[in-house]
Design goal:
By secondary structure, the protein is α/β, with parallel strands linked by helices. It is built from 10 helices and 6 strands, in the order βααααβαβαβαβαβαα. It folds into 2 domains: about 150 residues, HAD superfamily/HAD-like (Rossmann fold, 3-Layer(aba) Sandwich), CATH 3.40.50.1000; about 70 residues.
Length: about 230
């Protein structure tokens, strides 16, 4: 397994959102499938949504439009899916166990940012659900940058907002696209196996924590020692 991060080398922690803080990847898939059906492509959409994990909604819609040439614009399609996803979040959204507590604990030691491939409206909805708005010193969205993951733009933008060198940042991710983006940004990356299996994440070069508790013991080893004592 790849080595855990060294807290002495870090000043900031950047959280991905979907699949890290909230169990929202299945909700994204449901929202896309429901919108595809609403548009008349329920059985013929031909989109393998697993290929887009960690990427922006726009990447999905660009390929959908190229395949089917619907009358709606990408902006209109994005808005349809965004509204459906927020409805699902309100009824079925949940925070991964231990993640809220982890974020609050880390905020006492590091500067924190949320760096997501989602748009700001979606990020705001998740921050309301989790009650973590006050924890993050900065929020970076795909709307703020030129390229989505696996490009490093979102993470580099978050580091600038925190006024922290990339090499002093640790990224918490769950997807292969996110791991690649963090590596391209020159940051330490750790992964939680919420979306991909451990073997895939380790092959991609990430250290994988089995749980929020293990990740906390890596990034806050002093608290782990106090608990053990």
């Amino acid at each position: 397994m790849n080595a855990p991060p060294d807290p002495a080398q870090l000043d900031a922690v950047l959280f991905d959102m979907d699949g890290v803080l909230v169990d929202s990847e299945p909700l994204h898939e449901r929202a896309f499938l429901e919108v595809f059906a609403e548009l008349g492509y329920g059985e013929t959409h031909g989109m393998n949504l697993a290929d887009y994990l960690g990427q922006s909604d726009r990447a999905v819609w660009e390929d959908f439009v190229a395949k089917h040439h619907p009358p709606q614009s990408i902006a209109e399609l994005t808005a349809l899916k965004e509204r459906r996803w927020m409805e699902l979040l309100r009824t079925d959204g949940r925070v991964f166990p231990g993640m809220s507590e982890l974020a609050r604990a880390l905020a006492g030691r590091y500067r924190l940012a949320l760096a997501s491939s989602s748009v700001h409206a979606v990020i705001d909805a998740v921050l309301e659900l989790t009650g973590l708005r006050d924890v993050f010193a900065a929020v970076a969205s795909v709307q703020d940058v030129g390229r989505a993951k696996p490009a490093p733009d979102i993470f580099l933008h978050a580091a600038r907002l925190l006024d922290t060198p990339p090499a002093r940042c640790c990224v918490i991710e769950d997807t292969l696209a996110g791991v690649a983006a963090a590596q391209a940004a020159g940051m330490t990356v750790v992964a939680l196996p919420h979306t991909y299996p451990v073997t895939a994440l380790t092959r991609a070069g990430a250290a994988v924590a089995a749980s929020a508790a293990e990740l906390r013991s890596w990034l806050l080893p002093e608290t782990a020692r106090e608990t053990a004592a």
